[in-house]
Amino acid sequence: MTTRGVQKMPGAINAIRDLERTLSDTVKHRAFAAESRQDARREADRLIAEAQDRGSRAAERAREEVSSASELETGSIRAEADAEIAALHLWLTTERAALLAEMRAVAAPETFDRSDA
Q: Which residues fall in a compositionally biased region of kind Basic and acidic residues (predicted)?
C-alpha cells in the first residue's frame, strides 16, 4: 500500500524532503544567528569598555590640565598681590614718615624753627 501511494505522488516525497531540509537549515540558521548575536554583544561590550576607559583617561588628562592652569593662575595672582602689597607698604611707610614730620613740626615748632635763636 505504501509503495502504491508513493508511486501515485512522486512529488510529495521530494516536497517532504525539501521541507525537512528547510527545517534543518532553519535550525542551523537560528543557531548561527544566536551565536552571531552573542559575538556581537561581546564585541559591543568590549567597545563600550574601551570607550569608557578612553573617556576616563581623557577626563583625567583634562582635569590635570585644568588643575595645572589653575595653579599657574593662582601663582600669578599671588605674585601680583605680593607686588601690590609691597608697593602699598612702601607708600605707607613714606606717607607715615611725612605725616610724622608734619606732626612734629606742628607739635614742637621751636625745634624746627632755628631762625629765632
A: 51-66
